[in-house]
């Protein structure tokens, strides 16, 4: 039940992106780093599948990609994908093709994403165009025809979760309102970048799920997830079966599900990119301390105006 929210409305930070990854806490994942051989790609990596894909990443040239699954109906069905969806961001971040060329290429080689589970993908190159605004990005989904161009005048703020971009869940609508207020408040109060980021994590931590009332009702809570930006730790049907899952070689599931990673990406007018990853959970041990990783670099050839 992941979510991304992004705005190009701030005059000093023309690109702001907030992202929550909701997943089984026990799913093996490498924290964000420059892992590629040439250290060009900054991303966390899924270790539960051999493809070692990702859901969010950037490269040193300002190429950015974020993937969210499309909800097929249940948590178990959502996990089924013969070809890893996470391989798509890696493909884009490694490609030298422009975004439109890459889209055409990947559609062709994948036979229109045959055997790939449902997904939506935001992708593009961070470039500041005339008027000091970010050049358009694209969103594609294998559950919809064509692509949608965003970060145009009518879509300067966007949200995307596990439904189609044109059919947003309530959490997306709520998130866009909160992000709009965040940008407005930051301008009114002249917040620093650090304050903007701190308040961004507060937006990502907004929840409407009360697990104290029905702590074990996973299926009921699953129905509430489309309305909540943040998903607190929820016991899954696999709770208490962790050792048996390990014996079966199943590493993609576990006893708890919820928001495990929060990521914020901010780019200023000079092309300075800051990437902050907060990992709340990396196992079913709910007492572990969050891990925060911060990276910063300047995007070359950022200004196109």
CATH topology heading: Penicillin V Acylase, Chain A
Average pLDDT level: 90
Instruction: Please give the domain count.
Output: 1
Shape: globular
Overall radius of gyration: 19 Å
CATH class: Alpha Beta
Structural class: alpha+beta
> Could you give the order of the helices and strands?
EEEEEEHHHEEEEHHHEHEEE
**N-to-C span:** 37 Å
Q: How many beta strands in the DSSP annotation?
A: 14
Residues in helices, as a percent range:
10-25%
What is the tally of helical segments? 7
Main β-sheet: number of strands, strand sense, barrel status?
7 strands, antiparallel
Question: How does this structure look, described?
Answer:
InterPro entries: TANGO2. It comes from Kuraishia capsulata CBS 1993. This is Transport and Golgi organization protein 2. The chain is of the alpha+beta class and 305 residues long. It has a single domain (3-298), classed as Penicillin V Acylase, Chain A, CATH 3.60.60. The protein is built from 7 helices and 14 strands. The strands form 2 sheets. Strands 1, 2, 10, 11, 12, 13 and 14 form a 7-stranded antiparallel beta sheet that branches. A 7-stranded antiparallel beta sheet has the order 3-4-5-6-7-8-9, covered by helices on one side. Strand 12 and strand 13 form a beta hairpin. The longest helix is centred in the middle third of the chain and has 19 residues, at 170-188. The model has no long low-confidence stretch (mean pLDDT 90).
